[in-house]
Amino acid sequence: MDYAKKIKQGHICKDKVIMGKISESLLFRKFRAFLNRHLGPSSLPGEGIQYWRERIFHYFSLAVIFFGVALYLYYGLFFLLSEQHEFLAFSTIIFVTSLFALSVPRIPLRFKVGWVLFILYLTGSFLLFMGPHTNIGMLFLFACSIMAVTMSGAATGLWYTLFHAITLTAVGFYWFSGSVVHADPPDVSLHTYVNLSISFMVLNTVTLAPLTSLLNGMMFSIKKERRYQRILRKEQEDLVLARQKAEESDKLKTAFLSNMSHEIRTPMNAILGFSNLLSHKSINESEKGEFVDLIRHNANNLMSLVEDIIDISKMESGQFEVRNAPCQIHQILTEVKSTYEEELYRKGSSSVKIYLKEGLSDEKLQILTDAERLKKVLSNLVSNAIKFTDKGYVEFGYSLNNEQEMLFYVKDTGIGLPEGTEELIFNRFFKCSNNDDKLYGGTGIGLTIARHLVRYMGGDIWVEPRTNVGTTFCFTIPFQKIVSPANEKMKLWPTAKVNWEGRTFLIAEDEEDNFRYLEVALSLFNASLIWARDGREAVEVIKKIKQIDLVLMDIKMPLMDGYTATRAIKKILPKIPVIAQTAYAMQGERAQAIEAGCDEYISKPVNYNTLIEIIQRFVPGKLEETVRQPD
């Protein structure tokens, strides 16, 4: 009767059957856990072939000790009864040193393995030379070979196999050559000994060959796995680092967008606000002039912000370039000083003074560098110094480090830098302050731009070691002195009276507001204007009207862009001056415009004075009481 029927009929309790299965399963699991814990994989720390060799050696040494105790008791008693005291002392020394070497944890594994191999070989050879224990002696030699391959590798196992062959040959010669007289002959004949020796060597070789292959495969697999683990760990570390950088970048970008919104809205608020007030009837002429100045000031700040964003985009994309040309260094420094003195005066700040210290007395000193970039760096540093200085002074200037390098500095008596931020402040969007009670404006890219600009010019920038008061920035640029006298660049100022009466200018512009600006600006000088709303219309105008003196060509227009229109116009009137104007101020725009046939290039927003000067260069007008000043 099967179990199901017995349970159904009530002969066997169902609970008893279930408990029996559980008990059997539990015993099996305990037995399997015992085997895994003592003979298989373990949760103990360790990995690789070395870990498994330590575990193998542990159980191998236990077996050696177990059989070693039995052999020592047997042979020790035998040597004692036969009064062979020298053999008793020898075996005692071997046994005690083996126990010591295997039981002390601090002894290196390599030494333990070497000692055990030596003891196994010595014991096996001793038993063979003793005579009556040939089989046991060969067993010890075989154990020595197995352990040599397992614990020390194939090369060591091969050497011990060679030693065993030599030892067996020496033992055979010792017992069967007749050169030595023996009182106690061996327990085997010569024929049997030769067969045993050959069988031993064959078995030893046949066993060691696959064992060596198995161990080499295991070692290769373990090494490959560990290499994959290292790669995986490295990738995990890279992912964690990338995540941290991404999170930090997100935080910085969020802060940047918040700062950017504030920095854009602040001047825009002033521009829109004062623009609305200009139309109010109760505003007098004096106040209107003040409002116009404020609108111009905030518009310049907004334009500077846009240029900063464009510059850092160019730098990070590798599209930035430096244009070196002769410039008067003292003039640049004086302009920076005047600009920020005017800024302090406008803010009504009398507690901060600006000082300029020039390293050389030659006021007409000329160097070869990018004047606009140098002025930008100085402006960023001086502006930063003024922003973080409530009282005291801001001092800037230069000195000559040597004949090849100029050192510039900007020093202030402001709040200073928090410790450990000397390099962080040059990172994008990073902003720091020692004063939590006051909010400091800025986008966090001014110093980043300054570092990029200085390095593009061939120098370096840094912060001087922390001092008790304020902060000192230093930067270097190559010193290339220009010996020839400077050609004063004459600039046409708004007070000049230029008369372009009888001159006709074609303005290709798709935005009505931009055309209106040019129309008002140029009508002050009696110029006649023709408006073309796209490139195709500009070409049609040129085909119909040949008496046009100059073309102001916008680049980005519908139907036909400015480059294509310029090429078509130059085919019709090759000598007509074409001045490109564009809001795109990226690298290559100027070169592309010149290649298309444009004679000059001006970026938007179009500066009033620059526009008049360029047109006057190509289409000279009558000058009446013209005022010219050096730039």
From TrEMBL:
SUPFAM superfamilies: ATPase domain of HSP90 chaperone/DNA topoisomerase II/histidine kinase (SSF55874), CheY-like (SSF52172), Homodimeric domain of signal transducing histidine kinase (SSF47384). GO terms for molecular function: phosphorelay sensor kinase activity. SMART domains: HATPase_c, HisKA, REC. Coiled coil: none annotated. Residues 259-481 form the Histidine kinase domain. Keywords: Kinase, Membrane, Phosphoprotein, Transferase, Transmembrane, Transmembrane helix, Two-component regulatory system. It is an enzyme of class 2 (transferase). Its EC number is 2.7.13.3. The chain crosses the membrane at residues 56-75, 87-104, 111-129, 135-151, 158-176, 196-220. PROSITE patterns: HIS_KIN, RESPONSE_REGULATORY. It comes from the Bacteria. It catalyses: ATP + protein L-histidine = ADP + protein N-phospho-L-histidine. Residues 504-619 form the Response regulatory domain. The modification 4-aspartylphosphate is found at residue 554. It holds the Pfam family Response_reg. PANTHER family: HYBRID SIGNAL TRANSDUCTION HISTIDINE KINASE J. This is histidine kinase.
